[in-house]
Write a structure and sequence with these properties.
By secondary structure, the chain is α+β, with helices and mostly antiparallel strands. Helices cover about 50% and strands about 10% of the residues. Strands 3-4-7-8 form a four-stranded mixed sheet. A three-stranded antiparallel sheet has the order 5-9-6, covered by helices on one side. The chain is globular, with a radius of gyration of 23 Å.
């Protein structure tokens, strides 16, 4: 008698019940590399502004997989040739697409772990492929855009992929920013394949416009909110100070998993050369380690480190000035003078650690790479810019920021 495997379901606050489709995917979800995503916040410091934003990358990965299941079903009903093996590989690829993210991922990437999260995701997939006897070969090929059916990769990584559709919906739900809600169900129902590429049926054009507007609003109102930028820049500076003090042998106890990355030279080549060891150490890092490190640094003898740690923990964030042009030298000199008068106990060299200058850029849509294409009523295929009857802004918007301690 054939044993029918028991289906596993997860209750998701956005979509309801998500079915885990098969033994291999369930085993991947159960793996320690994936389970660590429960301890990695999806939105970093966004909870400082939006208190509900405590959902995790585990939530997001499962949600993206659910949307991929819906997309596969829609494409099959429209006659797209998609085998069961390709479906499973596609679901595995989207499930694991963010597995390379660390705690406060972007801050960590710009300071201590100088390897991009997508490169780490590929290394994690390759390691899992070894552990599962080659079962992830097709998923890796799709993820790296090496599989012949290019539209499969587009569903994972493009300007209209399942990743973006889930994080916009999920992040807007947990932050309470309703402007980020998108009509994901209608967009997915409008998807099709033409000449090996994902296209959107013309009826969905206004849903796509809403999607682009929602994405732009979410970036400037949530992801790049100036208070969130201030907190993330302070954390980057905190990590860099940790590294600076470590090199001068001026540190106390820090988590072993983080200590490993301070001691080892970090690049993709070294990760590949010592893949299992490096990935296991990276997988041991989570938000708890960073919070512990901040708490342990509050009373450190180094003024810069303790100031950054205290201010981050107590939400006494640096003031942030943001504008559309670079800050003048006179403005910077005035800030330095005011900070110098407030912090007389440190020298000018260390004072510079408390003044952070930079920029953030974003655009809602690019018409140069992976353009969203529409299947028009006359069977023509048009790019988004040509399909719309009005102008879609595809320019980068750059805002310059200056962070520094609040002056009393």
């Amino acid at each position: 008698m054939k044993v029918i495997p028991k289906l596993k379901i997860i209750n998701d606050p956005i979509y309801g019940f998500i079915t885990i489709p098969g033994t291999l995917i369930f085993q991947l979800i159960e793996h320690k590399y994936f389970q660590r995503l429960r301890r990695i916040s999806q939105m970093g410091f966004s909870y400082i502004v939006y208190p509900g934003a405590h959902h995790t990358r585990f939530h997001h990965a499962l949600g993206a997989m659910f949307l991929m299941q819906k997309a596969v079903h829609v494409l099959r009903t429209k006659g797209v040739d998609l085998s069961e093996e390709e479906e499973e590989a596609l679901l595995i690829a989207i499930l694991l697409h963010d597995i390379g993210h660390g705690p406060f991922s972007h801050a960590l990437e710009h300071s201590i772990v100088n390897v991009h999260h997508e490169d780490l995701s590929i290394l994690f997939m390759e390691q899992l492929n070894e552990e599962f006897n080659g079962a992830l070969e097709m998923a890796i090929s799709i993820f790296k855009n090496e599989y012949p059916k290019k539209y499969l990769h587009q569903l994972i990584s493009s300007q209209l992929d399942m990743d973006r559709m889930d994080y916009l919906n999920r992040d807007s739900f947990f932050t309470g920013v309703s402007e980020g809600v998108i009509g994901y169900d209608r967009i997915i129902k409008m998807l099709n394949v033409y000449n090996g590429e994902i296209v959107v049926e013309y009826k969905g054009i206004y849903s796509i416009e809403k999607f682009l507007i929602a994405r732009r609003i979410m970036y400037w109102q949530v992801y790049l909110h100036k208070t969130v930028v201030s907190a993330e820049q302070m954390l980057i500076r905190f990590f860099k100070r940790i590294k600076y003090l470590f090199e001068k042998n001026s540190l106390f106890e820090i988590p072993d998993s983080l200590l490993f990355f301070l001691e080892k030279p970090l690049n993709v080549t070294n990760f590949k050369a010592h893949k299992k060891t490096f990935l296991d150490k990276f997988a041991a890092l989570d938000d708890i380690d960073i919070t512990f490190l901040l708490k342990m640094s509050v009373n450190h003898k180094d003024f810069v480190l303790s100031t950054l740690a205290k201010n981050l923990l107590n939400r006494n964030l640096f003031k942030i000035d943001m504008q559309n042009s670079k800050f003048s030298g006179d403005h910077l000199d005035a800030v330095r003078l005011n900070i110098r008068n407030q912090f007389k106990e440190i020298d000018d060299k260390n004072l510079e650690w408390l003044i952070i200058e930079g920029s953030e850029s974003n655009r809602a849509y690019s018409n140069k790479k992976d353009e969203i294409k529409f299947w028009m009523k006359n069977n023509q295929i048009k790019g988004l810019v040509d399909a719309f009857d009005h102008v879609i802004d595809s320019k980068y918007l750059t805002k310059y920021f200056l962070c520094y301690p609040k002056i009393f």
